[in-house]
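Try this one yourself first.
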């Protein structure tokens, strides 16, 4: 059914198409009314007329969500475009600072040695084929000589030797040998792998020392 709308009613209908929330939101309706030189009551009455004509109603409500989404997207794009210079400037500054920091940070080098014992892997194989935990019988998946090697590396004798050999008191800027040994421990990592081997890792700023 075709309905002839007056120019004023056509204007109200165009407002509904642009701002569908004015049909149900009094605050938004008042804001739009003031922007278009009318009172909220006048706009509300004109909306009532359009509802009686059947021009707005279910179709308008159905378009509400999609229109709101479009408005949010438009607002976000507008916000980005308005602040584009600030956003680009901050991005460049952050990238530049990150580059400078990465260049100024000291580089650390790591050396790794792997110790393989004669019995490595034997207990792991036994554990994989046996439903009975071998540890319950006093057996360990870590070979005894690996345990002995770890104990030697963690002994005071070895740590003192390393501190004196590489002059770690001065290198680590420690006040005595005790603190130097603690610093050395922090830079040494001992790890027993699933295969029963021992991996020894040392880190240092000098690749030759590491």
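Now uncover the answer:
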């Amino acid at each position: 059914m075709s309905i002839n709308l007056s120019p004023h009613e056509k204007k109200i209908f165009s407002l509904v198409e642009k701002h569908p929330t004015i049909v149900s939101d009094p605050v938004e309706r008042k804001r739009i009314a003031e922007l278009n030189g009318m009172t909220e009551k006048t706009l509300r009455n004109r909306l009532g007329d359009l509802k009686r004509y059947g021009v707005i109603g279910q179709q308008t409500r159905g378009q509400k969500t999609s229109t709101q989404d479009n408005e949010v997207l438009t607002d976000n794009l507008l916000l980005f475009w308005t602040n584009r210079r600030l956003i680009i400037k901050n991005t460049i500054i952050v990238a530049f600072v990150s580059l400078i920091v990465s260049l100024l940070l000291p580089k650390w080098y790591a050396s790794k040695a792997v110790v393989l014992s004669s019995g490595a892997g034997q207990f792991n194989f036994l554990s994989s084929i046996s439903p009975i935990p071998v540890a319950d019988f006093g057996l360990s998946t870590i070979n005894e000589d690996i345990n002995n090697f770890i104990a030697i590396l963690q002994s005071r004798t070895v740590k003192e030797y390393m501190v004196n050999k590489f002059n770690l008191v001065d290198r680590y800027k420690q006040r005595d040998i005790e603190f130097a040994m603690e610093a050395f421990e922090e830079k040494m990592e001992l790890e027993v792998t699933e295969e029963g081997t021992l991996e020894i890792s040392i880190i240092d700023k000098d690749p030759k020392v590491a």
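Discussion: Strands lie at 109-115, 188-192, 198-204. Residues 106-204 form one domain.
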